[in-house]
Amino acid sequence: MLGSYRYLSQGLLAGLKKQGVAAEMTLPGAAFGQSSRLPRNGACFDAPSFYEITVDRKKLIGSAQVRKNGTLLQHGSILLDFSASQMVSLLLFSSEEERDRCQTLLQAKATSLHHVLGVIPDSTVLAQTIADEFGRTLMLEMVPDRLTDWEMERAAELEKEKFAADVWTYRR
Fold first, then answer.
1. From CA 107, how far away is CA 66, in angstroms rounded?
2. For 76, how many CA atoms within 13 A lie in the half-sphere containing its CB?
3. How would you label 6-36 residue by residue, b for 16+ Cβ within 10 Å and e otherwise?
4. What are the start-end ranges of the H helices in 56-143?
5. Residue 48: its pLDDT value, please?
6. Which pLDDT value is given to residue 35?
7. What is the Cα–Cα distance from 57 to 63, expressed in whole angstroms?
8. In what side-by-side order are the strands of the sheet with 53-55?
9. For 112-159, how does the pLDDT look when each residue is reduced to its tens digit (9 = 90+)?
10. Which positions are catalytic?
């Protein structure tokens, strides 16, 4: 399982380096303070997992994988800009002390391209650079495509029937 994270992170890392980002992969055994992870509150940038992308030991890309029926889906986030205070303002906490602790840890453990590069990169250029370098590094042919009509219809149904429902949104 970790091998697929490592493999895919190599492609992401190549794209970031092409953009001038001095990023690296978190390696097993690296002392990143896993013991100071935050309570489960949705702040997924609180600590890097193995093979996630960091800059100066701060998490820049958060990734997750799902395996089902012989397929793998990796999804994630690249922080273009980041405000720990804004992020924690959107999350539920049992106390203000927990909120403050979360904000302090996020400021210490997460970063953004704006912070690293001094500017917010154009997302279209960034996406194309990462796709190009991802394909080149992993020796894959990247083929632009779009969702099918059925997929678009299904997404609209899920949005309406599931994701717009309070029972889904507030299920925790």
1. 28
2. 22
3. eebbebbbbbbeebebebbbbeeeeebeeee
4. 84-89, 96-109, 113-117, 123-138
5. 66
6. 42
7. 16
8. 24-25, 53-55, 58-59
9. 999 999 999 999 999 999 999 999 999 999 998 999 999 999 999 999
10. 44
How far is residue 126's CA from residue 11's CA, in Å, rounded to a whole number? 13
Q: How far is CA 129 from the centre of its chain?
A: 17
Q: What is the pLDDT of residues 55-101, one digit of tens each?
A: 998 999 988 889 999 999 998 899 999 999 998 998 889 999 999 99
Q: What is the dihedral of CA 79, 84, 85, 87, to 10 degrees?
A: 50
Tell me the C-alpha distance between 128 and 133, whole Å.
9
Q: Write out the two tokens for 80.
A: 């273009």
Q: For the chain, how far is it from start to end, CA to CA, in angstroms? A: 27
Alpha helices in the chain (DSSP H): 2-18, 84-89, 96-109, 113-117, 123-138, 149-158, 166-169
Q: Residue 170 — pLDDT band, cuts 50, 70, 90? A: confident
Provide the CB-side half-sphere exposure for 61 (13 A, CA). 26
Please give the model's pTM, rounded to 2 decimal places.
0.78
